[in-house]
Design brief:
This protein starts with a helix and ends with a strand. A hairpin with a 2-residue loop joins strand 6 (125-131) and strand 7. By secondary structure, it is an alpha+beta fold. The protein has one domain (31-197). The longest helix is centred in the N-terminal third of the chain and has 24 residues, at 2-25. It has helices spanning 2-25, 33-44, 47-50, 111-117, 185-192; strands at residues 55-56, 60-63, 66-72, 84-92, 101-109, 125-131, 134-143, 146-157, 160-167, 196-197.
Amino acid sequence: MYDARVRGDRLRGDVCRARRLLKWRRAPEPPSRESVFNNFKTVVASADRDGYTPYWLGREFTAGGLVFQGPVTSDLPGQVAGGGVRMEYNADLALRGSSGAVGLEVVVYSPAAWEKDRGRVDASATKFVRVAGQDAKLSAIAGGTRPVEELVLQLKFGDTTVIAIAGAGGPLVPGGPDANPLIDEATFLAVMQNLRPYPQ
């Protein structure tokens, strides 16, 4: 009887220690949407001083049946050398029965920042389009066997330059369509028509 109680006490102690260890090793919770949005607000708070107007697509948008949420940005200063903001909008592929995510990158440049970064797009096909009331350049970039691996949109609002990049994401099933609906030109341009100054 005594031995059984001792063994029981030891077992309970082991379980408690194991629970404490698991709690200690548990992965941190992902940041909340509000804390991520606060990072964006912190970065663009210096936009006037840095000489650019922050443009964005709101807190979320829908494309191809997926909900893209953002803007996700680092809270570290100097993410765009010379002044600007780099943000992402991401969509979870769970709604399509897959894992992972696809996204859209939007980079807003001050004139000084754009001078440092311009000319980095190597396009296989470029044409001019009209987006958000502005003339814009749309580039289709090939990759591997894909005729279009990325779509890159470049446009200017006064002194502010905006670059938006959508990657194909690859097919969910062999031979199927690309995971990212934004790789479709019409879908991409329809979304980008909603580009507007923050906080509109």
